Amino acid sequence: MMNVLDAQDVLKTYFGYDQFRSGQTELIEMALNQENALGIMPTGGGKSICYQIPGLLLDGTAIIISPLISLMKDQVDSLEQIGIHATYINSTLSKEDYMNRMHLIREGVFNFVYVAPERFMSEHFLSLMKQIDVSFLAFDEAHCISQWGHDFRPSYRSIIPVLNELDHIPFKLGLTATATPEVIQDIQSLLTIDHNHVINTGFKRDNLHFHLVKGQDKDRFILDFIEKHKQESGIIYAPTRKLVDSVHGLLLQKGYKAAHYHAGLSEDIRRREQSKFINDEKTIMVATNAFGMGIDKSNVRFVIHHSLPMNIEAYYQEAGRAGRDGEPSDCILLFSGQDTQLQKFLIEQSGLSDEKKVQEYKKLQAMVNYCHTENCLSAYMLDYFNDPNRYGECGHCTNCTHTDEKIDRTQDAQMILSCVMRMDQKFGAGLTAKVLKGSKDQKVKQFRFDHLSTYGLMRNKTEKEITQFIHFLVAEGYLTTGDSKFPTLQLTAKAAAVLKGERAVYMRQVTIQEADASDYDTK
Ligand code: ADP
């Protein structure tokens, strides 16, 4: 009879570790009892061992379903390196290689077989599954199975009906690092997992320092930050391919070793860029969210988001690619009011059902609220996930560390707000900035805005500075950009109070108190 002592032995012999981490013992025990279970652990928490140890101790072959084929080879290689027989089956194999591996699987050679979810659509593969002794199925990145998850993969979900045909498989494990309460419930019902078989160690990552930067020139910020962190590895996420190309170009032009990655690049280039980044040949990766899932690079010291992500789940997962080695790392979100507009546009264009769109808007709102909260940023996100261990303030995010130094910008705000009012709240930030700058632009004249009392009121500032300050006012909720396709600036109740002189507008001095070891040791 298998027990936890055997598991402890395997932990030491194969992996060289003395103790299980929080959550691992419970999950492994359930697996050894052949009971369905779901493990929710932070990135770097040690999820792999939760299926690897049962896979070694139980008879038969463990089938690991993973949505990411790019990761399978690495996982198989690292198991082989410690003397464990493993293989993977995916669409990158030649026919001959595929047949050969299928043959060896039938022979029972492997302890572990990694497969992509699509494999379960193949009759050939299914018939093999029915013939061999499978110890269990493990669903890695299990949140992809839920349509409430931010990374829903229909191919993952379509395994569920097929499971009826595979009822000889004793049990199933699910593992994930990002799951809201709805997603957890969905996974439980799809994989039939009891409430008391859900092991949630929480998502908290003490070594991540979250920073929020508003109303600053984003390119300037990135260049300054990178200059100070030349020796470090980091990821910069941008929301569009065009923006990735532009930030990447900027970094190359300044002589930094930067890679880039987005779905518009050929597979070959993507693979090369990714491997250069992983091997530290290029220290910075500029990418869309197409990059990163399953990337196991432990020394990523910072993740900068150039713009608002679509929701907290996506943000926490992307930012969480920093600091997998447990060392202090910075997660910086550069926010400007107009970012929201792009995300709304993406939701509109997504082709989702109306019901799903409402859901996405709600999630986006929670992300926007993150940018407005004055409370601890880390606690805000853990609250969002309903984390079982919400331990109060992190002590190192922007909101926990800000000094009270603020600049009174009430006068600038009043100029902008009254200009928006005089332009009948029908135009965007660009034209408003032109009017305040006193530009001779054709459009300004066409609408006779050069006759407004606010025309040229801020001529001592650059158009870019004015635009940025407008975005700050949007970010702080003095202006909204409306729901129409074109972002037109509109005043809020807060703006009315500023115009009446009843409310002052302060801009906080943002200084990034960067994560460093001494800082961390005191926690
Ligand atoms: P994730 O949860 O992100 O999949 P991994 O399974 O890749 O995390 O584990 C992250 C790191 O932690 C790996 O280097 C792994 O070897 C290590 N690890 C896992 N379990 C333990 C343990 N009990 N003691 C020490 N290190 C561990």
UniProtKB/TrEMBL annotation:
What this protein needs as a cofactor is: Zn(2+); Mg(2+)
Describe the location of the Helicase C-terminal domain by residue ranges: 217-365
Domain (Helicase ATP-binding): give its ranges: 28-197
E.C. number(s) listed in UniProt: 5.6.2.4
A single GO molecular function term of this UniProt record: hydrolase activity
User: Which key words tag this protein in UniProt?
Assistant: ATP-binding, DNA damage, DNA recombination, DNA repair, DNA-binding, Helicase, Hydrolase, Isomerase, Metal-binding, Nucleotide-binding, Zinc
Per its record, the protein catalyses: Couples ATP hydrolysis with the unwinding of duplex DNA by translocating in the 3'-5' direction
Q: Which domain of life is it from?
A: Bacteria
Q: Name one GO biological process term.
A: DNA replication
Instruction: Please verify whether the record's keywords include Cell inner membrane.
Output: no
**Record's GO cellular component terms:** bacterial nucleoid; cytoplasm; replisome
Entry's family note:
Belongs to the helicase family. RecQ subfamily.
Q: What is this protein called?
A: DNA helicase RecQ
